[in-house]
Write a structure and sequence with these properties.
Blueprint (H helix, E strand, L loop, with lengths): L17 E6 L9 E6 H11 L4 E2 L5 E5 L4 E10 L11 E4 L75 E4 L4 E4 L5 E10 L6 E7 L6 E6 L2 E5 L8 E8 L8 E8 L3 E8 L9 E11 L1
Parallel strand pairs: 3-5
Antiparallel strand pairs: 1-2, 4-5, 5-6, 7-8, 9-10, 9-16, 11-12, 12-15, 13-16, 14-15
Length: 292
């Protein structure tokens, strides 16, 4: 039998330090005999018998099981810097090229560098969706795309060469890509229906305008009108007008092109009875073709 004495206290035991225990598992006559046990052996027993988790990790790194009863660092790191567009915290970042597999995620905001739907995966974006910053980012689609609703382009449409084309050109297939080309007719045109009353400028209802320009109408004098801002040269166009006032024989008029110069096109409305200019166009049409 051991005699228990009062000894000085040790607050940090070493793994080789001995403890005095009573062996209760031995059968008689050896039962309850006094034996010694090291602190290290006791620690190993506690871990193995209680399936304790062991291991170490890095500060602000989310742990992950590396074995049945051991842990280590995962690729998920907590940081106190940034977090979303407004600097919201907390922010968890994946270090390296860690992959995440999830069945369903519901998020209010998500900020990431890359999203990939591998294999037969699908990325579904509902609601109003903004992708990237037009001033610095680019969206590249490497697969066939289907639009089941109207698509609106507020910016420039570039062809396969990166060109935006020129006024009047159309997108055409090259067989393997698309390219901006002339429309095949060799010209762009401005076509409009016009009416005029009293001393007002003619009012144009534009039927077609692929010139890239926005011309203006004005009244210069009785039956004398100007279409301005459409021509850069007087020698690269063709203009024709038709119509006038057909409300009665006495007031009937016809439209004619009187002169053309780079600044404007002069159109007159002449009475059929005496050839004098007169205001009043009940229905007229004008077509201006600009040749490249």
């Amino acid at each position: 039998m051991a005699i228990i004495y009062s000894y000085p206290k040790k607050t940090t035991p070493g793994s080789g330090d001995f403890l005095v225990i009573t062996d209760s598992e031995q059968p008689a006559p050896n039962k309850n005999r006094t034996k010694s046990l090291t602190v290290g052996d006791l620690a190993s027993f506690v871990i193995s018998s209680q399936s304790a988790i062991t291991g170490s990790g890095t500060l602000n790194t989310v742990p992950v099981f590396t074995g049945a009863t051991s842990i280590g660092d995962s690729g998920l790191v907590y940081t106190t810097t940034g977090g979303g567009s407004a600097g919201n915290l907390p922010l968890y970042a994946f270090s390296g090229s860690a992959d995440v597999t999830m069945q369903r995620v519901v998020l209010s905001d998500m900020f990431c560098n890359n999203i990939s739907a591998a294999g037969t995966g699908t990325v579904t974006l509902n609601g109003n969706t903004t992708i990237g910053d037009a001033s610095v980012d680019a969206l590249t689609v490497g697969a066939t795309s289907t639009f089941n609703a109207p698509a609106r382009f507020n910016g420039t449409i570039l062809d396969s060469t990166g060109g935006a084309g020129t006024a009047g050109q159309v997108l055409s297939s090259t067989g393997t890509a698309i390219s901006w080309v002339s429309d095949g007719e060799g010209f762009t045109s401005y076509v409009a229906k016009i009416t005029q009353s009293s001393t007002n400028a003619p009012v144009a209802t534009v039927i077609n305008n692929n010139t890239g320009l926005t011309p203006t109408w004005s009244r210069s004098n009785t039956g004398d009108y100007r279409l301005s801002g459409l021509l850069a040269s007087a020698n690269t166009h063709f203009t024709q007008v038709t119509g006038g006032d057909s409300s009665s024989a006495a007031t009937a008029t016809t439209l004619l092109v009187k002169s053309i110069n780079p600044s404007d096109i002069q159109i007159v409305n002449l009475k059929l009875v005496d050839g004098q200019p007169a205001d009043g166009i009940t229905l007229g049409f004008i077509e201006v073709r600009k040749y490249s």
